[in-house]
Amino acid sequence: MTQRFRATAVVLDIEGTTSATRHVTDVLYPYSRRRFARLLTERWDEPEVRAAVEQVRELLDEPEADARRVERALGAWLDEDRKVTPLKSLQGIIWAEGFARGDLTAHFYPDVVPVLRRWHARGARLYVYSSGSVSAQRSWFGHTPQGDLRPLVSGFFDTRTAGPKTASASYRAITAATGVPPAATLFLSDRASELDAAREAGWLTGALTRPEEPHGASDRTAHPAARSFTDIDLDLELAEGTV
Ligand SMILES: CSCCC(=O)C(=O)COP(=O)(O)O
Ligand SMILES: [Mg+2]
């Protein structure tokens, strides 16, 4: 069923929305898991690695946790698919290098890229908000089978720069950064808990209910539901009171 939204900006979730969860869990996750030990031993003193290690120690409440202990924690969080900021930061470092080397390629559902190009050409502003780090998001959009999609995107947000995806304050922080009124901002995600938080911040919401997605919102979600991007009709005429 086609869903019509009057919005000037669209904020995109990645996993389960633009892209297959399986590609993340079956390709990217094992790639990072195999490289954590080396990153933590050989690059322990790099500021980005150190900052993430300190966050891991805080979460564990173990200020002296060494590289082996940190690696074990990262592995456990991966097993549980915990979207924890330091895990995502360290994965982002590893993945950025993997994409740059040509080891990794992103996945986008076939309906997504033509629609994003069309929306962008018509003047919509596109943003990304994912649990994956901004560095991972840039690499993902920069290395797709459909080419480099980064020119389509006006800004990237993650749990470090905006906050947790299930907190309405995070969506308010994104609104402050984009300057686009909440009522003219559409968030597309597969997770009802994220959509609930965006709606609480006054955003428009669209649930992606792709049948092949394991965590996808059900068709009976409280949010307007679309099975693919071709079911989303974006009306770029500015709604009264949104400017
Ligand atoms: C390319 S970003 C890596 C994907 C990832 O690690 C992740 O957790 C995605 O979660 P999302 O918020 O996009 O559902
Ligand atoms: Mg998602």
Automatic annotation (TrEMBL):
Reaction(s) this enzyme catalyzes, per UniProt: 5-methylsulfanyl-2,3-dioxopentyl phosphate + H2O = 1,2-dihydroxy-5-(methylsulfanyl)pent-1-en-3-one + phosphate
GO molecular function: acireductone synthase activity
Top EC class, one word: hydrolase
Cofactor remark: Binds 1 Mg(2+) ion per subunit.
Membrane-spanning segments: none
This protein's UniProt keywords: Amino-acid biosynthesis, Hydrolase, Magnesium, Metal-binding, Methionine biosynthesis
Stored CDD domains: HAD_EP (cd01629)
Pathway connected to this protein: Amino-acid biosynthesis; L-methionine biosynthesis via salvage pathway; L-methionine from S-methyl-5-thio-alpha-D-ribose 1-phosphate: step 4/6; Amino-acid biosynthesis; L-methionine biosynthesis via salvage pathway; L-methionine from S-methyl-5-thio-alpha-D-ribose 1-phosphate: step 3/6
UniProt region (Disordered), positions on chain: 207-226
Composition skew (Basic and acidic residues), residue ranges: 210-222
EC number of this enzyme: 3.1.3.77
Cofactor list: Mg(2+)
Family: Belongs to the HAD-like hydrolase superfamily. MasA/MtnC family.
Functional note: Bifunctional enzyme that catalyzes the enolization of 2,3-diketo-5-methylthiopentyl-1-phosphate (DK-MTP-1-P) into the intermediate 2-hydroxy-3-keto-5-methylthiopentenyl-1-phosphate (HK-MTPenyl-1-P), which is then dephosphorylated to form the acireductone 1,2-dihydroxy-3-keto-5-methylthiopentene (DHK-MTPene).
Subunit structure: Monomer.
Protein name: Enolase-phosphatase E1
Organism expressing this protein natively: Streptomyces lusitanus
Gene assigned in the entry: mtnC
